[in-house]
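Curious: why these numbers?
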Amino acid sequence: MGKKLSTLSSLCLLMFGFYHPAFAGREIHLAATHYPPFYAEGLPEQGGVSQVVKEAFERQGYRANIKFYPFARGTLLVKNGKADGMIGMWYRKDREQWVDFSAPIQPVQIVFYKRKDSALSFSKLAELKPYTIGIGRGYANPPEIFAAGLMTEEANSDEMNFKRLLLKRIDLVLVAHNIARYLIEEGPAEYANAFEQVGQPVANEVFHLGISLAVADHSQLVAEFNKGLESMRKDGRLAEILSQYSQLDTVQPPIEKSLSSPSLKFLPRTAHNAIHNQLSKGG
């Protein structure tokens, strides 16, 4: 009798949407690099983007685990199928050779930072040719930077680039808006009044989940993740988690880049509108 009641109770919970079977899908192993405040090992919930990825999979009955590596190591694990995928990937055509991209998760505004005591200003990228720009090694930096023939120097991290900027070893840092704010707020005391953004955002990138093409069920994993992500978008959970990441007010489109970027081709209409609103109204 007790067993029948238990079964009946479970059926009722399923019917009314209050029950989720215990992780019906397999465990998913994902790689990530440290990219605070979006995702990093030491952040609460490993950061907001990590939280979104795990919750989207959980809604579809999967448990996702995220481990952190240097970017080059993480991409190698994904290419070889030793990790199921990588979070926070920006779309590039050549990456389609080794990952299956999910629907967009979060927009990222790419900006320049300079020292406050520098008179440097610009309205066109070509005006930056006399200056040295610090970029991240292995990052999918905006192609416009290289197309303009700008002088760049790679560093292993954004943190290292800000140290070099402070020491006047470089003139600018190319960095995500939210990351710059985080590093300045969490960095040494001398950072507080040392740096400022210059110019409008150079590019709007978009975080995706990239699932390895070396994984046999990659198409299914992307489809399941997209379903979970869309349900989070519809019930407001996605906006709730990502509201911690402000967007800059912009008075003009990003330099030489628009929202027709290939990375937005994955957007369902509801997601496209949400991303567009985040980028256009700021906050």
